[in-house]
Amino acid sequence: MNDIACRLYSAAQVRELDRRAIERHGIPGYTLMQRAGVACWAEIRRRWPAARKLAVVCGGGNNGGDGYVIARLARGAGLSVTLYAIGPAATAGDAVKARADWLSGGGAEALLLPGGLDGAEVVVDALFGIGLSRPLQGAAAAAVDAMRSARAAGAGVLAVDIPSGLDADNGRLWGAAVLADVTVSFIGRKLGLETGEGPACSGERVFDRLDLPPEAYEGIVPMATLLAQEQLAHWLPRRARGAHKGSHGHVLVVGGDAGMAGAALMAGRAALRSGAGLVTLATRAAHAAALTTAQPELMCHGIEEPALLRRLMERADVVAIGPGLGQDEWGLGLLAEVLDSSLPLVVDADALNLLAREPIRRDNWVLTPHPGEAARLLRCSTAEVQRERPVAAQALPARYGGVAVLKGAGSLVAGQRLRLCDRGNPGMAVGGMGDVLTGIIAALISQGLPLEEAAGAGVLLHALAGDLAAAGGERGLLPGDLIGQLRRVVNPVVA
Ligand SMILES: NC(=O)C1=CN([C@@H]2O[C@H](COP(=O)(O)OP(=O)(O)OC[C@H]3O[C@@H](n4cnc5c(N)ncnc54)[C@H](O)[C@@H]3O)[C@@H](O)[C@H]2O)[C@H](O)CC1
Ligand SMILES: [K+]
């Protein structure tokens, strides 16, 4: 995927790109608008080739202007096109021109919503783009409802630039949002489409640079970059022919309190399947025999006295602590021992909850909270984390040091940079998937990847394996199914 298509921008940054295109590169705004319309119309023809009835819902700004361009192209191709508006006709400069061209070409005035988008086969959401700046109310909210109802009645929905109602910067909703089958986004990909509620509202994301020259993007540091599969070959090169089991590091997994042995086992299995040379589990004595039987490749020690952990840590290259650790004395004692070591750590689940009680900073660790654990670490509500995911993700290393993975739709990896994973699926929302991610990241650290790269590669591998495993259906997907796909994704360089 080309570099610019991997960059994720804020609304303000895209507006700056618009400005540069017009003022520095001499591309008139109306030309950009026409290119945007052409890109959307091409997607409509590709996705719904037989559609004959189009409804275009136009806002008063330039997003609406894109809608007028699309309407003119569709009408010119012989489709029946009905325009809808929520209030005064186009106000933004380029949109006024686009509306004038629509009318002078024989197009009818827009009908005022609310009202049903009667019988439309395809609905174009040109209500709001990056100009959405406050909660949807009144006619705007009614227009979104009408588009959601049309989709529920079987119409296809294409969102222009961003589904109306979604915040371009962080993927939160300004009320209900349009649910699109596809979103055609222009000039710069928006971070909000890829995280929070973005993936659920946007459908497939199609990006079109509108032929902006690459130099227009120089000097604008994207808010985040997409984790790209192409990077995996660099992170996971083919193995040296002379490798031996000590060449690929030793992972120590600490966890598995009473009733939760499986969490430690899944983390250990994932570490093995992600290429760690050796993996040891430190868990409750009562679990050791069963776990050894379950996976003989794992070394397994019953640790009831935390001090005994030191001997195991002497032989480890990285410690993953948290899977099934519990938050009682036993877990607390083990965490204290682990924090005393200077080894790189992957800290997850209950270890994060314990850490939230007594915060400390450290540079060589990767924290892997889901939104609820992140909320405890940041002392805020889960809703606040989800409303401002990019901000929350970056607040974690700012406060705790190291690298943080904020899990959830559009997982974010925050360290020196902010990266985003746009893979994965709702089948992965099941207990144990976090334990697997912990094992993967620990295994990559044990194989020599720096923390931030290990976290990014681990999140991407976890999602890619989850997508492969979900091919048989998302419901009923188990962590073991994902572990079963790891070997395929951790060998990007085919021998
Ligand atoms: N050269 C360009 O700028 C290009 C822009 N493209 C398209 O333009 C939109 C951005 O257009 P803009 O006029 O800045 O804003 P919107 O059309 O997104 O917003 C419309 C309008 O709505 C008002 N508004 C904001 N929030 C609300 C609300 N909750 N309720 C009611 N009204 C609201 C706000 O005042 C705005 O004026 C961009 O996304 C692209 O689609 C071209 O595609 C490329 C060239
Ligand atoms: K839109």
UniProtKB/TrEMBL annotation:
The answer on whether this UniProt entry bears the keyword NAD reads yes
Give the multimer and partner information: Homotetramer.
Kindly give the PANTHER family that the UniProt entry links to this protein.
Answer: ATP-DEPENDENT (S)-NAD(P)H-HYDRATE DEHYDRATASE, ATP-DEPENDENT (S)-NAD(P)H-HYDRATE DEHYDRATASE FAMILY MEMBER
YjeF N-terminal domain: which residues? 14-218
Q: Which residues bind K(+)?
A: N63, D125, S164
| Segments forming a coiled coil | none
Q: Which GO terms describe its molecular function?
A: ADP-dependent NAD(P)H-hydrate dehydratase activity; ATP binding; metal ion binding; NAD(P)HX epimerase activity
Q: Fetch the CDD domains from UniProt.
A: YXKO-related (cd01171)
Binding-site list for AMP = K407, G408, A409, G410, S411, G434
Role description: Catalyzes the epimerization of the S- and R-forms of NAD(P)HX, a damaged form of NAD(P)H that is a result of enzymatic or heat-dependent hydration. This is a prerequisite for the S-specific NAD(P)H-hydrate dehydratase to allow the repair of both epimers of NAD(P)HX. Bifunctional enzyme that catalyzes the epimerization of the S- and R-forms of NAD(P)HX and the dehydration of the S-form of NAD(P)HX at the expense of ADP, which is converted to AMP. This allows the repair of both epimers of NAD(P)HX, a damaged form of NAD(P)H that is a result of enzymatic or heat-dependent hydration.
Which reaction is catalysed here? (6S)-NADPHX + ADP = AMP + phosphate + NADPH + H(+); (6S)-NADHX + ADP = AMP + phosphate + NADH + H(+); (6R)-NADHX = (6S)-NADHX; (6R)-NADPHX = (6S)-NADPHX
Start and end residues of each YjeF C-terminal domain: 228-493
The residues that the entry says bind (6S)-NADPHX are 62-66, 129-135, 161, 263, 324, 370, 435
Cofactor binding note of this UniProt entry: Binds 1 potassium ion per subunit.
Biological process according to GO: metabolite repair; nicotinamide nucleotide metabolic process
Instruction: Report the protein name in the record.
Output: Bifunctional NAD(P)H-hydrate repair enzyme
Named cofactor requirement(s)? Mg(2+); K(+)
The organism encoding this protein is: Solimonas fluminis
According to its UniProt record, the EC number is 4.2.1.136, 5.1.99.6
Instruction: Tell whether Acyltransferase is among the UniProt keywords.
Output: no
- Keywords in alphabetical order: ATP-binding, Isomerase, Lyase, Metal-binding, Multifunctional enzyme, NAD, NADP, Nucleotide-binding, Potassium
Name the family the entry cites: Belongs to the NnrD/CARKD family.
* NCBIfam families noted in UniProt: yjeF_cterm, yjeF_nterm
